[in-house]
Write a structure and sequence with these properties.
470 residues, alpha+beta, Cathepsin D, subunit A, domain 1, 14-stranded mixed sheet, seven-stranded mixed sheet, 8 helices, 27 strands, PEPTIDASE_A1, Peptidase A1 domain-containing protein, signal, Peptidase_aspartic_dom_sf
Length: 470
């Protein structure tokens, strides 16, 4: 399937044939595919789960005028006011290569669906990837500093791939003071993809907004598609769907011809014309199913209509948050236990690993996620080359050598336990129906495993999420 990526980058299409073509970046997962050994390392898995929960618990909810929005949680300490959401250079982040400046500098640009800021983080740690402003002839210094500590807003030339254009773009350049411990962190760029400016801390214009204002793109959609566990395509201003469809059609035609030489000799295999291939690719790429964003304004949260296990509906009407940097599927405890109750022979692990459940390896369930007008089987197929587990992609590895039980990729979340909304300001008052300061008590976190089965389009103007089979 990786061959599709090579073909697709040559002929890139769009979501609904806008006037301007989308911009396409190849993306990679830092550190490679998420670990999938034959025998699961429960200690490592628990550590990774805690990292995920820490990222989500870094935010809370607040009232702004007459709506509920998601905001960074207030921290305490001498450096707290200069701490940005997101971990630049974190192992497991999906990232693209940002080409910036003259001469061109290549900087790893992490993608983050939970934050809204577009910034470059520059430290003296010697780790990560570096943007050296003093080495760029096109760098324009900011006239005034940003209100956010340690950050300013300069401009420089950004070179856009696939469309082969270069334009000046402003961004937040943040450089912590040398005496601060944060200067030991990795350097790099960070692109927040959250749909709301409520999560912006620097209050600068996003990359996508600037591309629209400069008439580089006119379709206010970005999209993600994963080719495997470590490679994918990130598109701004449309999607890569037509190109991936075209590559798949051409590859399938070529495989048929190569495998059936006798049919080719007899003239029974007729190649489709370029026009026929293009028409089929465009038509198939328009088959999107859309869901409106809901919940507290800030993240890509939608409603999952149902979860089906082996043909039986186990759960319905579950709110989910989409996040490509989460390597699991996190479910509220009650929902997770109801889900595994539907899988014959499954069982919850004892503490301290009781957030995980095991199931019979050689009888993996068939699982479907249902959205508005769409029902898709997920976690199907084999793992990436070089990894093995008898439980397939639903498995995080066997419990032990010789065990017939595998650890499931759906795990229990312990987030959302906290104080009522408003208590952080010392105003407890009457309890609100929004229990748990961050509002995650009843929400699923649907991460990277689901992105392996579905291509996503995110409309940040209309605030809706589109899905299509990969």
């Amino acid at each position: 399937m990786f061959q599709y990526l090579t073909f697709a980058l040559v002929f890139m299409g769009s979501l609904a044939a806008p006037n301007l073509p989308p911009i396409h970046y190849t993306i990679s997962r830092r550190g490679g595919s998420f670990t999938a050994p034959d025998i699961s390392n429960l200690t490592y898995l628990l550590e990774q789960l805690q990292v995920v929960e820490f990222r989500f618990n870094a935010t809370t909810r607040a009232f702004v005028e007459n709506k509920v929005v998601r905001k960074p949680r207030r921290l305490h300490g001498t450096q707290a006011s200069s701490t940005l959401l997101g971990d630049v250079g974190r192992e497991g982040n999906w990232f693209a290569s940002l080409h910036i400046g003259d001469p061109v500098q290549d900087v790893d640009m992490d993608l983050d669906m939970l934050t809204a800021d577009w910034y470059i983080f520059s430290t003296s740690s010697g780790t990560g990837s570096f943007y050296l402003d003093f080495n760029s002839k096109t760098y324009i210094e900011a006239e005034t500093p940003l209100p956010f500590p340690t950050c300013r807003e300069p401009k420089d030339i950004v070179h856009l791939p696939s469309i082969k254009r270069s334009i000046p773009i402003s961004f937040a350049l943040c450089r912590p003071a040398k005496q601060w411990i944060r200067t030991l962190l990795p350097s790099g760029a960070y692109l927040g993809l959250a749909p709301s400016t409520a999560l912006s801390q620097t209050k600068t214009a996003s990359l996508m907004t600037q591309l629209v204002e400069n008439n580089i793109i006119d379709n206010q959609v970005w999209s993600l598609v994963l080719i495997n566990g470590k490679d994918g395509i990130f598109s701004i201003g449309g999607t890569s769907a037509p190109s991936l469809r075209r590559a798949a059609i051409e590859t399938d035609d070529e495989l048929i011809r190569s495998r059936t030489p006798e049919m080719k000799r007899d003239g029974l295999v007729v190649s489709r014309t370029a026009t026929e291939i293009e028409t089929e690719a465009v038509l198939s790429s328009t088959e999107w199913k859309w869901s409106k964003v809901q919940g507290a304004e800030g993240w890509w949260q939608i409603l999952m209509r149902g979860i089906w296990v082996d043909g039986v509906k186990a759960l319905e009407n579950q709110p989910i948050v989409l996040d490509i940097n989460t390597p699991f599927i996190l479910a509220p405890p009650i929902a997770a236990r109801a889900f595994y109750f539907s899988i014959s022979g499954s069982r919850q692990l004892p503490p301290p690993y009781d957030q995980f459940h095991a199931y019979p390896c050689f009888n993996p369930p068939k699982i479907h996620f249902e959205f508005a007008g769409w029902n898709e089987e997920v976690f199907k197929g084999k793992r990436d080359k070089g990894t093995f587990s008898p439980g397939g992609r639903f498995s995080l590895g066997r419990m032990a050598a010789g065990s017939g039980y595998c650890v499931g990729i759906v795990v229990e979340s312990r987030m959302g336990k906290g104080i009522p909304l408003g208590a952080e300001k010392g105003n407890i008052g009457p309890r609100t129906p929004m229990e748990g300061a961050n509002g995650l008590e009843d929400v699923w976190i649907v991460g990277e495993p689901f992105f392996r089965d579905v291509q996503f389009a995110f409309d940040w103007k209309e605030k809706k999420v589109g899905m299509q089979r990969v």
